[in-house]
Specification:
This protein is an all-alpha fold. It has one domain (5-204): YcfC-like. Helices cover 67% and strands 0% of the residues.
């Protein structure tokens, strides 16, 4: 199936949004629920009909798209810490791609988590604890490990740890989607103009209607 630049920017924005949420929790101890929910939502979309629906409502990864634009243009400024998270998530996805055993385990455990969730809200501590456990038992074993830096007071909080691990798992999910819709490392390096146009179109779809 052919995929569009919009599909690719949505997936890449998903990676950036997950990383952005990790940053906020690590440095501030809190995060905008509206930014975090689409990331967690994506983990339970096993058979999504199209790329946008992976994250939910239209514009769900607008924060991530704005981060992509800032990283490309330098306006208002590039965030090197965010870049480090994004690059590491994309690298881990490439490593994971060669680990069919781990991919299978993650898939089966997310399916089990979806069944166990029932009517619990996406950001319920029990749901996030289960997702964090999946991350701990799988992705966290890949080398080099993803190092999250921030305020030690916030990082030592068990609920924050669960939220961060869940978001890192969601970042990997978005990175997998990026590969599935034809995203490559070379597009990030050499196709920035197209990514920038796609990100702006995502944020303001009526401008190009």
């Amino acid at each position: 199936m052919d995929h569009s630049d919009q599909d690719r920017i949505i997936a890449l924005a998903g990676v950036h949004q997950a990383a952005h949420c990790v940053q906020r929790i690590a440095n501030r101890g809190s995060v905008d629920i509206g930014q975090m929910e689409p990331c967690i939502h994506s983990l339970f979309q096993i058979d999504a009909t199209d790329t946008p629906s992976v994250f939910g409502e239209p514009g769900a990864v607008a924060t991530g798209a704005r981060q992509v634009i800032a990283q490309i243009t330098g306006e208002p400024e590039r965030d090197m810490e965010l870049t480090r998270y994004v690059v590491t998530l994309l690298k881990h996805e490439r490593t994971l791609h060669a680990r069919a055993d781990m991919m299978s385990e993650i898939g089966s455990r997310i399916s089990a988590a979806a069944n166990a969730r029932g009517d619990l809200p996406l950001l319920d501590p029990e749901v996030l604890s289960g997702l964090a456990g999946i991350y701990t038992d799988t992705i966290s074993k890949l080398q080099p490990r993803i190092i999250v830096r921030g305020n030690p007071l916030f990082l030592k909080n068990p609920e924050n740890q669960d939220r961060i691990r869940s978001l890192l798992l969601a970042g990997i999910r978005a990175a997998i989607l990026w590969r599935q819709v034809g995203g490559t490392r070379w597009q990030v390096l050499l196709g920035r103009r197209r990514l920038l146009e796609a990100a702006r179109s995502y944020l303001n779809p009526t401008a190009n209607a």
